[in-house]
Design a protein that fits this description.
The complex is a heterotrimer of chains A (249), B (317) and C (398). Chain A has 249 residues and is α/β, with parallel strands linked by helices. Chain A is 37% helix and 27% strand. In chain C, helix 1 crosses helix 12. The chains are: A alpha/beta (249), B mainly alpha (317), C alpha+beta (398).
């Protein structure tokens, strides 16, 4: 199995707050990897390191390395990295623009001007995000007129339009109702054929349902990392077992 | 999976944008530094020009002169030819006029804002509030015009009542009234915001203890809002000290002083700077910058002092 | 006892608030009663300075017979198609005024005796004296002191006009109106890019350290400086600067604009910062996560959504420019002009009032008329600002 991300002895601190401690993990290509664990344990922080969104935070000190496709992420231009490693956020955040413009935003920033090419990209992305049928007639409408679930799928479409290799998802369904959540989980299952997906989730059942690999975080460390079925059936670490069975969390 | 985008991306595009980012950030930073330096520019230039009468020689009618600095600070007469300038009394006048204006403006503003927020029915309150906003946006020249047209007439009338000969109403009292009217809207608007921000819990707590609405309003609400009200007062003081156009039309620009009699004409730092401008060269022009330095210092000191008081008021809750 | 005290306290608040309302009422009544009668289109478009010209009409043409419009108390010359009326000027002196000129009248194409340029007679102009000649060379004189009928008679007798002294009254504020407009445009042209740029830097790019907060404080402090000090700075910095740059001599609209620009920077910066801070940070994150550069994020996502706040700052600035007087008195000057040229002195509306009031004979009526113009503009601005603020709120409630 091909490794797409390789994290070695990675530490991160916000000021004096040591958030990630000696993290080592390999992310496999075209698999869904889930990060689970109690609040504040560093899962989202690590996720944000994969597309260098932590660069935006002052006072963030990182020691160790994260390799993407063999090269350190810090050696790649951040913009370029983000075209290959996309992100979907917890609260759906489509721009206050039309549906079309939202999806065309990324490609336009890359310099694509051709209307016909943009049209192809937008339609293709909407289809892949299972949203096209619902919005095909109203692409010029403001994106904020969509429901929460639709907005999130729009954000996924927006991300897909950039043709990334990896999609990072930071609790993508925690703000959505169960039906919308289900739709997105189905989508993730389809997407993993073409993309590597790393998903941070509070919802263990979700992790068990959709991921191939799961990493359990606690207090900034990865306690256990294994194939999902193994981790949930035979957790090797007692802390993992306690969390899964709901003794804390 | 169709790949439309990846083959179309120009690899130089990212490099260009990265360079753009650096340039843009540098430009924005330069702009910000420029904006921040404005105040430095102001202080330096006013200072350079204003210090000149005391350290440079001015040739008047063939003889060179300087102005005596301590005489300037203590003087009770503005100008005695050829080179004696005194601004001491002007400083006293400025503080005096501002203080009196505050005495009128602060109670008026506080009571008015209580009225707007708590005592008046909603519709009436918002009308009065809008009226205050309108008053706040009237330019000072129009207040000056109103001062000359109406307020001086009123002052002249009252001077007549006590048989005092005023200069057609141009007087300290007119100055004080005009200033008060001008700063009331400022203080009122800030006080209203403050009073509106007082938490419902505090009000309900007072009412639950058996206090009447009026008691609550005057004791509890006002006390809770005092920080914001005081902030409004500080703003009002700043405005009063710096007001030039309006009071230049009603003050009279007295030659000496200080003036405490309300019906006599007076002279403030700002009226000194604005009135009597003849040439743009020479001692008479430069000395106005010296007055400008005094004004800046007084505003600065007053602000510092008032902010210290504001912090103390904030502590005694 | 307590009840009485409470009623008293409440009554006091009514009293003080009533005082406020009274003040506004008094100001409005005073300004409008004194100024309303002077308001007219001529006021807004006319020159301030009176113009006295000597005109002539020496072409000999077939004399037409013009139709008398039949205006009250007027005297009509059917030969020339012009009607005169006896009236009084502002000082109460008797004058003869033109109150009708036929659209085909030859008096629309007279010649100015000194400049030889075309001139035409219009309504409201005042005739002082006229000398005509008929084809036989006889002279006919008309003097205003003899009344409008004598002037009309002289016109009817003569065939060419050798000398006509006509006064176009002044008191118009066109020069000051144009100056105010130019000031607004020029000031905003300078201040907006700088102010918005600084706001963008402070909210999007600046690191959260001491230097940044010092810069922010310095900008905030600038708003506490009285406008007359800005005038002083304008006088010693921008006037010489503009003298060198655009060849002005002393104050100019340009030096005034620069002075106003630095005065308005804190307002523009603060208002724009507030507008930007309302925009959810998640938009910025989303943009960057899609591979956009900071510049693209700023211009495609942040700025378009901050437009409401920027517009508000523009409206606030316009209000301040219109009302500003002390700074412009120093940084431009107080010379009233009939034209507005960027590298020359002129007065804004507010400074025009100052000039009118600071001479030996203050002109209350014209000052109040100008005040009405200012107040109307300020009122309209405040209404527009409220509407814009309402539109802004729509964005926040999402």
């Amino acid at each position: 199995m091909e490794k797409i991300f390789k994290v070695s002895n990675f530490n991160l601190s916000y000021g004096t707050n040591h958030v990630l401690k000696d993290v080592n993990i390999d992310i496999y290509k075209n698999k869904v990897t889930a990060f689970i664990g109690p609040s504040g344990c560093g899962k989202s922080t690590l996720l944000r390191c994969f597309n260098r969104m932590n660069d935006l935070i002052d006072n963030c000190i990182m020691v160790g390395s994260i390799d993407y496709q063999g090269g350190d992420v810090n050696n790649i231009n951040a913009m370029e990295l983000r075209t290959k490693v996309g992100m979907v956020f917890q609260n759906p955040n489509p721009f206050p623009m039309s549906i079309y413009d939202n999806i065309a935003y990324g490609p336009r920033c890359q310099g694509i001007k051709s209307k016909s090419l943009l049209n192809k990209i937008v339609v293709d992305a909407l289809k892949k995000a299972a949203l096209y049928d619902e919005v095909s007639g109203r692409m010029k409408e403001n994106a904020l007129s969509l429901s929460g679930g639709q907005q999130q799928r729009l954000c996924i479409a927006r991300c897909i339009a950039m043709e990334p290799e990896v999609i990072l998802m930071d609790e993508p369904t925690s703000a959505l109702d169960p039906i919308a959540t289900l739709k997105i989980e189905e989508l993730i299952d389809k997407l993993k054929e073409d993309y590597t997906i790393i998903i941070v989730t509070h919802n263990m059942q979700q992790a068990a349902r959709i991921s191939d690999y799961t990493a359990f975080f606690m207090l900034g460390e990865i306690v256990e990392y294994n194939e999902t079925t193994e981790l949930f059936k035979n957790p090797q670490n007692k802390k993992t077992e306690d969390y899964i069975t709901g003794r804390f969390g | 999976m169709g790949k439309y985008l990846t083959n179309q991306i120009n690899p130089n595009n990212i490099k260009h944008r990265a360079i753009n980012d650096k340039i843009t950030k540098a430009i924005f930073m330069a702009i910000t530094v420029l904006c921040a330096l404005v105040i430095v520019l102001i202080v330096i230039f006013v200072f350079i020009k204003g210090i000149s009468p005391f350290i440079n020689d001015y040739i008047i009618d063939g003889i060179s002169y300087r102005v005596n600095f301590w005489g300037f600070l203590r003087g009770d007469f503005w100008f005695q030819p050829p080179n004696i300038y005194g601004a001491g009394f002007i400083i006293i006048n400025t503080m005096y006029v501002t203080l009196l204006a505050l005495l009128i403006a602060v109670p008026t503003s506080v009571f008015t804002s209580l009225f707007i927020s708590k005592i008046a029915p909603k519709k009436v309150g918002s009308i009065v509030s809008y009226i205050v906003e309108l008053l706040a946006s009237i330019p000072s020249i129009i207040y000056g015009l109103f001062g000359v047209g109406i307020i001086t007439k009123i002052v002249k009338f009252f001077a007549g009542l006590v048989n005092y000969q005023s200069a057609g109403g141009i007087s300290t009292l007119a100055t004080v009234l005009v200033l008060a009217i001008m700063i009331i809207p400022t203080i009122t608007m800030l006080s209203t915001t403050s009073i509106n921000a007082v938490k419902k819990d505090i009000i309900n707590g007072s009412l639950a203890l058996g206090a009447s609405v009026t008691q609550t309003n005057f004791k509890v609400v006002l006390t809770s809002a005092k920080s914001g009200i005081f902030a409004g007062v500080i703003l009002g003081v700043g405005r009063a000290l710096g007001e030039a156009t309006a009071i230049s039309m009603v003050a009279g620009n007295a030659g000496g002083g200080p003036t405490f009699n309300l019906f006599d004409t007076t002279r403030t730092l700002t009226t000194t700077m604005l009135l009597g401008l003849k040439e743009t060269l020479g001692l008479d022009y430069d000395i106005r910058f010296s007055v400008g330095i005094l004004l800046i210092i007084i505003i600065l000191l007053t602000n510092i002092l008032l902010n210290v008081v504001k912090r103390k008021i904030g502590k005694v809750k | 006892m307590r009840k009485i005290k409470e009623i008293l306290l409440n009554a006091i608040t009514y009293l003080f608030s009533g005082f406020e309302v009274l003040v506004l009422g008094a100001i409005l009544v005073y300004i409008f009663s004194n100024g309303f009668s002077s308001l007219s289109l001529e006021l807004l478009t006319g020159n301030y300075y009176e113009k006295v010209e000597t005109l002539e009409y020496t072409r000999q043409e077939t004399i037409k017979d013009y139709l008398n419009p039949g205006l009250d108390d007027s005297y009509f010359s059917s030969k020339w198609g012009i009607s005169f009326i006896d009236t009084e000027n502002k000082a109460g002196e008797k004058i003869v005024m033109i109150n009708y000129v036929d659209e085909y009248s030859p008096l629309l194409s007279m010649t100015n005796s000194s400049t030889k340029e075309y001139a035409s007679l219009v309504e409201k102009q005042v005739i002082t004296k006229v000398i005509l000649e008929d084809l036989d060379g006889n002279m006919y004189l008309g003097f205003a002191k003899n009344g409008a009928d004598s002037i009309a008679e002289a016109f009817d007798k003569g065939d060419i006009i050798t000398n006509l002294v006509v006064t176009t009254s002044g008191g118009g504020i066109r020069g000051s109106l144009l100056t105010t407009l130019y000031l607004i445009l020029l000031t905003l042209l300078i201040a907006l890019p700088l102010g918005v740029g600084a706001a963008i830097y402070l909210t999007q790019y600046a690191p959260k350290n001491k230097i940044t907060s010092i810069m922010q404080s310095m900008i905030d402090m600038t708003s506490g400086i009285p406008s007359i000090i800005f005038g002083l700075v304008g006088a010693i910095v921008f006037i010489p600067f503009m003298n060198n740059l655009i060849g002005s001599d002393g104050g100019s609209i340009a030096s005034g604009a620069l002075t106003l620009a630095i005065m308005l920077l804190p307002i523009i910066i603060r208002t724009t910062e507030e507008a930007i801070n309302v925009i959810p940070t998640t938009y910025r994150n989303a943009s960057l996560a899609l591979g956009a550069s900071s510049t693209q994020t700023t211009f495609k996502v942040i700025l378009p959504n901050a437009l409401g706040g920027i517009l508000t700052s523009v409206l606030l600035s316009i209000g301040r420019i219109i009302g500003e007087s002390a700074a412009l008195i120093y940084a431009v000057g107080t010379a009233i002009k009939d034209t507005a040229i960027i590298n020359q002195k002129s007065t804004s509306l507010a400074v025009h009032i100052w000039s009118l009031m600071s001479g030996e004979s203050p002109n209350f009526e014209l000052s109040c008329a100008i005040s009405i113009v200012i107040l109307v503009i300020v009122l309209v601005l405040s209404i527009i600002t409220k509407l814009v603020a309402k539109k802004l709120n729509k964005f926040e409630v999402e």
